[in-house]
Design goal:
The complex is a heterodimer of chains A (268) and B (399). Chain A has 13 helices and nine strands. With 268 residues, chain A is α/β, with parallel strands linked by helices. Chain A has a nine-stranded parallel β-sheet with strand order 5-4-3-2-1-9-8-7-6. Chain B is of the alpha/beta class. Chain B is globular. The chains are: A alpha/beta (268), B alpha/beta (399). The structure holds pyridoxal-5'-phosphate. Pyridoxal-5'-phosphate binds next to helix 5, helix 11 and helix 15 of chain B.
Chain lengths: 268, 399
């Protein structure tokens, strides 16, 4: 069984819910980024989403745009990210999903990417700007090496599309909480709940909700109706804030600890 | 030969739809609305009457006698898109899309702009129909196209500065896309070139193809035959595809697209996507030729003209390039500047710096051609917006 499926099965057995942090690989630099990933695994991340930096992140708000830029200033590329994951894999079995725009992956070569990703223990890939036929082709290609292409659904996705997307999805489904770019928002949205309710009609796959989740009460709210909550910009902005990089890992740890509801901390 | 994309917006391997899921429903809605409108007689009538009465179409096809004689070769005709209302071809597309936006019941319009001509044209049609208008523009472009920023504001549009990335057209498109995903229910994205996800490259091409339709009839009336060459500058690719499209089936008509050669041939010094070649990629919703580094990060670009300063190119051009139906060449900043001056002096027409790239290329090729060769160059816009930039450069060159 894949690590992602195993993890969600385990959560289900424990009647627990998942926490999926997102960080950009190589922000603020590769060494600290690796330490952050290990720390997140230790803090019981169910899955870690590792962002591949891109020069033109059209679906991201300012926080992740800047984070991407910091990583690119360090010259971070896919090879470095593979090295990072290889290191991390020596110490943890936490499922890792690459979160990327298509172009950096496309230039690397999708089949080569698949083979190397599978070899070093990456579990899934989420590509923000790939949909429909192209997504199905990539999904089939990744599946040959047991990698999951994680699909997105949004409040604007019709029932008909949700049905089609769900039937072809692997791993888990990522429900975008609201129309918009990534970024922390204080309000929780009922659009997300109704989206998850609609998707439930078509799939038994775990559903994670993300975009704009930055507080404990938002996580608790998501856990009421979905299987996991994704927290991205809120963590990334903690990384941005800690200007002394020797403190970054502790800053992230303190923030994530404060963010996680008690249930998650006690569930093993 | 079929020059239509397939139902998923692909010309060969180029085009398609590479967007976040949130945008899909809006693109489906837009595609459906466009296909209905395209076949609707009322829509066509309204479009044609605005093109005529508001923008002043048909634009003239002008025989540039002095330029032809000075260069001493081909007979040069200029398709005077600069004489459109607002001073460039961009209004052709804006009139079409604003009528569509109204049919779709959208009250808020957003756009990106590089040179500011598309922003001005969008602000203009929004004023005409009383719609809210927000235009995204890179801060570098706002600096060099200051006059157009002022015009947009005068027309009632809000101009939002984009200070990320290279602070030019590409970054303005990113910001417009971010606005669109956030305000998808209320907002119409009026994209300004033959770029982006399906159906934009097709729709913009269709609205711009009035240029070639007119030119074809005009040259037949004036010369009794089709031209030998068409020349146009290629930014995103809308004025060029607009001129070329109606002639594509005519094998005797050769076509040349002129990209921005900028200040040199290294990545970052130009916007010559076909010439300098860093291959195929996916940017801002479409698959096409893209200037990028080995890691797939989009390269910065440079051109004297804001409207050509873009890292990718419309997918139909990528297809025509591979078919070798259109030849793509480049003209440097300096050559464009010389062409700008020469056309001003010989014909009394001040061209946009974008259009000056097309003129620069015909200055290179026309003298080699026999005198019965007929060449049509697209004068995509007028140069008033560039006078400050050119004055600054001329001053610097003298020092
Ligand atoms: C006058 C003029 N010509 C050409 C262009 C280039 O765009 P396109 O290649 O879409 O015609 C622009 C874009 O701003 C422009 O303003």
């Amino acid at each position: 069984m894949s690590r992602i499926r195993e993890k969600f099965a385990q959560l289900k057995r424990d009647t627990a819910k998942g926490f999926i942090p997102f960080v950009t690989a190589g922000d603020p630099n590769l060494d600290i980024s690796r330490e952050i990933v290990l720390k997140l695994a230790e803090l019981r991340a169910s899955v870690i989403e590792l962002g591949v930096p891109f020069s033109d992140p059209m679906a991201d708000g300012p926080t992740i745009q800047l984070s991407s830029q910091r990583a690119l200033l360090n010259g971070v590329n896919i090879r470095n990210i593979f090295d990072l994951v290889s290191d991390v894999r020596k110490k943890t079995e936490v499922p890792i999903v690459l979160f990327s725009y298509l172009n950096p992956l496309f230039q690397f070569g999708l089949e080569k990417l698949r083979d190397e990703a599978a070899r070093i223990g990456i579990d899934g890939i989420l590509i923000t700007d790939v949909i429909d036929v192209e997504a199905n082709e990539i999904s089939d290609m990744l599946a040959e090496k047991s990698l999951d292409l994680i699909s997105l659904i949004a409040p604007t996705t019709s029932d008909q599309r949700i049905e089609k997307i769900s039937s072809l999805s692997k791993g888990f489904i990522y429900a975008v909480s609201r129309a918009g770019v990534t970024g922390a928002r204080s309000v929780s949205s009922s659009a997300a709940e109704s989206l998850v309710t609609r998707a439930r009609k078509y799939t038994d796959l775990p559903i994670a909700v993300g975009f704009g989740i930055s507080t404990q009460s938002q996580i608790e709210d998501v856990w009421r109706y979905a299987d996991a909550a994704v927290v991205g910009s809120a963590i990334v902005s903690e990384i941005a804030k800690s200007n002394d990089s020797s403190q970054t890992v502790q800053t992230v740890e303190a923030f994530v600890t404060s963010l996680l509801p008690q249930v998650a901390k006690s569930s093993t | 030969m079929n020059y239509q994309p397939n139902e998923r917006g692909y010309w060969g391997e180029y085009g398609g739809r590479f967007v976040p899921e949130t945008l899909v429903s809006a693109l489906d809605e837009l595609t459906a609305a466009y296909f209905v409108a395209r076949d609707d007689g009322d829509f066509r009538t309204e479009l044609e009457s605005l093109l005529k009465d508001y923008s002043g179409r048909p634009t003239p096809l002008f025989y540039a006698k002095r330029l032809s004689e000075t260069l001493g070769g081909a007979k040069i005709y200029l398709k005077r898109e600069d004489l459109n209302h607002t001073g460039a071809h961009k209004i052709n597309n804006c009139i079409g899309q604003i009528l569509l936006a109204r049919r779709m019941g959208k009250k808020r319009v957003i756009a990106e702009t590089g040179a500011g001509q598309h922003g001005v044209a969008t602000a203009t049609v929004c004023a005409l129909f009383g719609l809210d208008c927000v235009v995204y523009m890179g801060t570098e472009d706002m600096r060099r196209q200051e006059l157009n920023v002022f015009r947009m504001r005068l027309l009632g549009a809000e101009v939002r500065e984009v200070d990320s990335g290279s602070k030019t057209l590409k970054d303005a498109i990113n910001e417009a896309l971010r606005d669109w995903v956030t305000n998808i229910d209320t907002t119409y994205y009026l994209l300004g070139s033959a770029l982006g996800p399906h159906p934009y490259p097709l729709m913009v091409r269709d609205f711009q193809s009035v240029i070639g339709k007119e030119a074809r009839q005009q040259i037949l009336d004036m010369e009794g035959r089709l031209p030998d060459y068409l020349v146009a500058c290629v930014g995103g690719g809308s004025n060029s595809i607009g001129l070329f499209h109606d002639f594509l089936p005519d094998e005797s008509v050769k076509m040349i697209g002129v990209e921005a050669g900028g200040s040199g041939s290294k990545l970052g010094e130009h916007a010559a996507r076909f010439i300098a070649g860093s291959g195929v990629g996916v940017l801002q919703g479409t698959k096409s030729y893209v200037l990028q580094d080995n890691d797939g990060q989009i390269a910065s670009t440079h051109s004297i003209s804001a409207g050509l300063d873009y890292a990718s190119v419309g997918p139909e051009h990528a297809y025509l390039h591979d078919l070798r139906r259109v030849e793509y060449v480049s003209a440097s900043d300096d050559e464009a500047l010389e062409a700008f001056k020469q056309l001003s002096k010989t014909e009394g027409i001040i061209p946009a710096l974008e259009s000056s790239h097309a003129i620069a290329h015909l200055i290179k090729i026309a003298p080699e051609m026999p005198s019965d060769t007929i060449l049509i160059a697209n004068l995509s816009g007028r140069g008033d917006k560039d006078v400050n930039t050119v004055a600054g450069l001329m001053q610097r060159n003298q020092e």
